[in-house]
Specification:
The chain is of the alpha/beta class. The protein is 50% helix and 11% strand. It has a single domain (10-309), classed as Aldolase class I (TIM Barrel). It has 13 helices and 8 strands. It is globular. This is Dihydrodipicolinate synthase family protein. Pyruvate binds at residue 217.
């Protein structure tokens, strides 16, 4: 059993939320998706994230989805739930609900309303008060939040948050930030926490692993890419890690287009049998015939390259 603590490693996959073609929450596909991810070797699941369409779910749907995921996982890997909210009452209520359902911990990003270093640090002091002893992950994703957290601010948060066990690092560019955080823990200036990287399908995953990341927390229709890259890097075969990553990179890049990226991922997951429908709730994109042709070409080329790599 993998643990959600400061030693966490591997791949915590950010999942999509499956819906039916009519837009209802699809709990049968949720089971299929969980099985699909676990069969490909992920060490954790993260749900109700940005690409999990969390803001499009009702409070009851969020609880029902969490309940289904936790039940299907059956304790085999940790399940982390995004509970970010500008208001602490909502954050605390959802946190208590998902922890009661069996989640291993939660993930929190700062709201766009905090701007200065002191505002950011003060916000997370209140997060600590709200979450209590619940283990949590600090999400640093300026592209979505608009909040820039310098390395010094992140270190300040970590020093004041004994139950923050993980940093989800997805600033871009962010390699220097990752190096600075690892250097601080190596010197003993701050305790070492798990660092998992995002950046849209892990677009800098090999480099981030070389800078001290412990794995990835992001989504991609081929989760085995991240699993295999992290494994190869971990056993010291860095060139193999890069070769594998390069084979998947064109499709991972295509998935990260602003506007249609989620639709691309859901389409591919439907093609792979992980979910029954590629439906994206409104407001959401739809793929054109040209998009679908691009995707088919990229999948064929990816398969050919993987065969060459063996």
């Amino acid at each position: 059993m993998h643990s959600f603590d400061t030693t966490a490693r591997g791949v915590y996959l950010i999942t999509v939320t499956p819906f039916t073609d009519a837009g209802a929450l699809d709990l049968a596909s949720t089971d299929r998706m969980v099985d699909f991810c676990l069969e490909r070797g992920v060490t954790g699941l993260t749900i109700l994230g940005i690409l999990g369409e969390a803001t499009k779910l009702t409070a009851e749907e969020a609880k029902a989805y969490t309940r289904q995921v936790v039940r299907r996982v059956g304790g085999r890997v940790p399940v982390i739930v995004g509970v970010s909210s500008p208001g602490f009452a909502a954050m605390g209520e959802l946190t208590r609900a998902v922890m009661d359902l069996g989640a291993a911990g939660v993930m929190v990003a700062p709201p766009g309303s905090v701007r200065t270093d002191d505002q950011i640090a003060g916000y997370f002091d209140m997060v600590n008060e709200t979450l209590g002893a619940v283990p949590w992950c600090l999400q640093d994703h300026p592209v979505s939040t608009g909040v820039q957290m310098a390395p010094g601010v992140i270190l300040r948060i970590l020093k004041n948050a004994p139950h923050c066990v993980m940093l989800k690092h997805e600033d871009w560019p962010g390699l220097a930030k990752l190096s600075a955080i690892r250097a601080a823990s190596d010197k003993g200036d701050v305790r070492r926490v798990s660092v998992l990287t995002g950046n849209g399908g892990g677009l800098f995953l090999p480099e981030e692993l070389s800078r001290g990341a412990d794995g990835a927390m992001t989504g991609f229709a081929w989760p085995e890419m991240m699993v295999d890259v992290v494994a190869a890097h971990g056993r010291g075969d860095v060139e193999r890690a890069h070769d594998l990553f390069d084979a998947y990179l064109p499709l991972a890049r295509y998935e990260q287009q602003a506007g249609i990226g989620l639709a691309v991922r859901k389409h591919l997951l439907q093609q792979r049998g992980a979910i029954a429908s590629s439906f994206v709730r409104k407001p959401g994109p739809k793929l054109s015939a040209q998009d679908l042709a691009d995707i088919d070409r990229l999948v064929r080329r990816q398969q050919q390259r993987l065969q060459q790599l063996g």
